[in-house]
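A quick word before the example. In earlier lectures we treated sequence and structure as two separate objects. From today on, think of them as two lines of the same record. Here is Ubiquinol-cytochrome c reductase cytochrome c1 subunit written that way.
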Amino acid sequence: MKKILYLLLLAPVLAFASEGGVPLDKAPINPYDNPSLQRGAKVFVNYCLSCHSAAYMRYNRLQDIGLSEGQIKDNLLFASDKVGETMTISMDKKDAKQWFGATPPDLTVVARSRSPDWLYTYLRGFYRDDTRPTGWNNTAFDKVGMPHVLYELQGEQVLHTEEHTDAHGEKHEVHKLELVKPGKLSKPEYDAMVGDLVNYLAYMGEPAKTTRMQLGIYVLLFLSVFFVVAYYLKKEFWKDIH
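And the structure line, produced from the sequence above:
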C-alpha cells in the first residue's frame, strides 16, 4: 500500500520528467489585470486563432475583462459573425493534419493542462533547426510540429549546447538560446507580449475564476459571522444545563 501511495505522489513528477524536465520560467499571471487580458486576447485572435480554435470560449465572455460588444465586433471578431458564438476556426481538420502533421489542438483549457509557466517558457523557446520540416524547434517541446508564428516579433534564436562540470565532477549539458536576428520587438517587449498572451490563455481556461474567488471570500465572511451568532445562541440554549 505504501508503495502504491508513493507512486501516486510521484506521478506528476514523472509526467513532468517525461516531457524533458525543462526548467520553467515564471509566467506573469494576474487575472485581475484587465488591460493585460485585453492585450492578450488581441494577440490570441491575431496570431493563434487562425490555426487553433477555442471552441469552449464565447466572444461575449470578453465583456468580463472590460471590452464592450462594439469593441469585440470591431477589433476581435474576424472568424465569426456574432458575438455570442464560440471561437472556432474555418480550417479543415484533414487539411491541418496534412499541412502540420497533426491537427492543431484546441486551446480553451491549454493553460490548465500544460500550466501557464510551461506556456510562457514554450512561447519564448523557439530556435532555428534545419533538421525539422518547419525549420523550427523548441526547448520546452523537442521536435515540435508547430512553426514559430511569432518569429517576426521575437526574431530568430539559435541553441548553443555547453558542457559544464559540477562540484562532484559530473558533466552536464547546458542549453542556451542566443538571439542572432532581432525581431520587431525587443526582448523585454516580446516577453511582456507573451506574458499578456499567457495571462489571457489562463483566463480563458476558467473565465469565472475571479468571480468564484470573490464569492468564496463572501461565503467565508458570512460563515464567520454566522459562527459567532451560532456560538452565542448555543450558549443561550444550554446555559441552564451547563
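Notice the following. Residues 25-207 form a domain with the Cytochrome Bc1 Complex; Chain D, domain 2 fold (CATH 1.10.760.10). We will return to this example when we discuss secondary structure assignment.
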